[in-house]
Amino acid sequence: MAAAFFDIAAELLGERTDMDRLAARGTLRLALKEAGLDVQNLTVPQLRAVFEKLMPKELEARGVSDATATCKAVMDDIASAASTVDLEDSNSPDEIFKRLGGN
Q1: DSSP 3-state helix, strand, coil percentages of the chain (rounded to 5)?
Q2: Please, are residues 9 and 80 in contact by the beta-carbon 8 Å criterion?
């Protein structure tokens, strides 16, 4: 599921900027690396922090106008998409154990 958040964020970033797929993914990977985060363990709150604190600077360096608004728009889209991803991942090991434990 964590990698899905990365994929969604990179795709939305590409849609909201003039960056191609490779540039959007690379820019996001650089910001995650700067934050010390791993794509495989990425959570939505971590992604939100990266988009609030690091991505505006990364986007400005790449000539994206109004980088802060772009980051906010991407995070709004991710928040909507996160609920869909969570539903699709209802058979993850964590979800299964939660159901077995009565949580």
Answers
A1: 80, 0, 20
A2: no
Answer for the pair 43, 51: CB distance below 8 angstroms, yes or no.
no
Alpha carbon distance 103, 88 (integer Å): 19
Q: Which amino acid is at 79?
A: A
Q: Which domain holds residue 67?
A: 2-100
Report pLDDT digits (tens) over 47-57.
999 999 999 99
- If one counts the domains in the chain, the total is 1
For residue 7, the SS3 value is helix
* 17-26, 37-46, 67-76, 93-102: range with lowest mean pLDDT: 93-102
pLDDT: which is higher, 68 or 90: 68
Global pTM reads 0.76
Q: Which of 27-31's residues contact partners 24+ apart within 8 Å by CB, and which partners?
A: 27/55, 27/58, 27/59, 27/62, 28/55, 30/58, 31/55, 31/58
